[in-house]
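Narrative summary of target 7.
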Amino acid sequence: MGMKRIPLLFFLLLSFSVVSQEWIQDNSKTAVSFTIRNFGVNVEGQFNDVSISTNFNTDDLPQFQLKATIKVGSMDTGITGRDEHIMKKNYFDAKTHPVMTLESKSIRRVKDDNYLLKATLTIKGKEQQMEIPIQLREEDNELQLSSQFVVNRKDFGVGGGSLIMSKNVKVSVTYIGNR
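Modeled conformation, tokenized:
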């Protein structure tokens, strides 16, 4: 290999490693919470075991990947009996389906720090294609991601045909990653 090719090869390898570098999740600042109306009252909760990995790079959106894995059993609404009930078969069926996932398919910039994420959400083994608005900001080796969106629980067979529980679940995601 000629001496002129070595610097070019080095530059290409360096560029690839920067582009594909993943962010490291800051667990203390990453959260997935939800609100659902039940018996006419808003019930709020969160998932305490969340893992989000991404390689976000504003200069290389075609290579973007994001995967979120949430342990269903880590749900906390503040009432243990309710949390245990929601783990049963007609709700999350946590024994059979211990995790739910969100995997990116593509992303496009809408404006400034606003993006539209196309992803597959899997809950109880059922997949739904989603378009999720997200805000992404990268500064000082920190990635800040936030999103609010609605999931129809009936699309995933969660809670059956309950008339006292809203079909719409408002989801809020906050993710902080560091390099």
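The chain has a mean pLDDT of 91.
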